[in-house]
Design a protein that fits this description.
The chain has 15 helices and no strands. Helix content is 76%, strand content 0%. By secondary structure, it is mainly alpha-helical. The chain has one domain. Helix 1 runs antiparallel to helix 12.
């Protein structure tokens, strides 16, 4: 329920859209993030780019939420740190995945999180989901099968499989957040800061491991204007802007409305991949993309 008191019914739609537009913009930049990450990252620079991307973000979050961080208990630090390890796995899978598949496929496959999460929740609670949701899940899975085939039925690419694992990891992260009691009373800014800080620590360790091809400072030194623009887009818009808009929006509208708007992310991923990345979908892949979008949208409504 919206926290804004509306004195006039005629103003309600306008005020709702003033809240909806920034949230929709978050979905747009998240959708474009797959193409941006693909554009500035190679298989040899994944950990370095992740260190740079989130290393720019964490100090800002620490400064913004310093009081909240100091108020965290030891148990909350441990719980958030554990979630940070899971989060690091998600970003590693997503980034390696998008390097080895198209931005369109990446955005559509990761949207299966919206199907996997209620299914996993049902398995944990032993409560059977509605039949409509199961049908929507089947539709989405069929869509992914078609999407990853290109011109014919072949083995999905390594990137497609990594994005599927990332969707499963996102599901695990959501379930852990709901069940790690220590973090349930922590404010969202502090929780996010500790998680991202833990993830950056993991990326830094991996980037410094013997045999690593490119250190973060080496990669940064080799960046041109295009690469720095992409990195700043990922850091400023896809992370900082997105987080603060979500915090702002959930206080002014319903979580369901925010979730619905953010659920358009795969649409924007496909749009960015096709319009800006020059990606093309064959007939089977196009049908698969439509089925994924229809299935996830139907599943979101059925699980509500």
């Amino acid at each position: 329920m919206s926290s804004i008191a509306v004195p006039s019914a005629g103003l309600a739609p306008r005020r709702a859209w003033l809240t909806d537009l920034p949230v929709l913009l978050v979905a747009v930049v998240w959708g474009a993030s797959y193409l941006a990450a693909k554009d500035i990252t190679t298989a040899h620079t994944v950990t370095a780019v992740l260190v740079l991307r989130f290393g720019l973000v964490v100090p800002v979050l620490v400064a913004a939420g310093w009081r909240g961080l100091r108020a965290l208990t030891a148990a909350q630090w441990r719980g958030a740190g554990l979630l940070g390890l899971v989060l690091s796995g998600i970003f590693l899978l997503e980034t390696y995945g998008v390097v080895h598949t198209s931005a369109t496929n990446a955005g559509l496959i990761i949207s299966l999180t919206m199907i996997f999460t209620p299914l996993a929740e049902a398995a944990v609670t032993r409560v059977r989901p509605p039949r409509a949701f199961l049908a929507a899940a089947a539709l989405s899975v069929a869509g992914v099968v078609l999407l990853t085939q290109g011109g014919g039925f072949t083995t999905p690419s390594a990137g497609d499989l990594l994005m599927l694992l990332a969707a499963l990891a996102r599901t695990a992260h959501v379930l852990f957040m709901a069940r790690v009691k220590a973090v349930q009373d922590a404010d969202s800014l502090s929780l996010t800061t500790v998680q991202l800080g833990g993830a950056v620590a993991v990326f830094a360790v991996l980037a410094a491991a013997p045999g690593t091809a490119d250190a973060p400072w080496t990669v940064a030194a080799g960046f041109g204007v295009r690469e720095w623009s992409g990195l700043l887009f990922l850091s400023v818009f896809c992370t900082l802007f997105a987080f603060f808009v979500q915090m702002w929006a959930v206080r002014r509208t319903s979580p369901s409305r925010v979730s619905l708007l953010l659920g358009t992310e795969p649409l924007w991923a496909a749009a960015a991949g096709i319009a800006l990345g020059g990606e093309r979908l064959g007939a089977l892949a196009l049908l698969g993309a439509i089925l994924v979008l229809a299935g996830t949208g139907w599943g979101r409504r059925a699980a509500a």
